[in-house]
Amino acid sequence: MSHDTPHDPAGEAGAATEPAPVVRPRIGDYRRHLLVCTGTRCTQDGESQVLFDSLGAKFKAAGLNDGELRVKRSRVSCFAACKGGPVMCVQPDGTWYYNVTPENMDRIIAQHLVGGRPVEDLVFHQGPAGG
Where is the stretch described as Disordered (predicted)? Predict the structure, then answer.
């Protein structure tokens, strides 16, 4: 009596191949990295997300989207600093800002990101500079 084995495609040569190699990510050069809290506890009505979404055009207008002054921007879900939002941090400077309204963001762009000087009346913490 014959015992037929069901067809098992996992046992074929194709299934035994090695996984694809992990590709190393690439990020272009940048001078500063702006981390913006877009968490729901930081602001009401999505103000932080609106602020973050406006940064592409603001950076382009200020010459911060490429070149020597390029600023990379990233969303962060929570900094655990939920008062006075929108809150953001500029690295490697270690400068933390609060009350980042669109008008205050314009000041931060001109004075800090372009000019290199923190906007002191909006700084709530100065951590160690990384660089």
Answer: 1-22
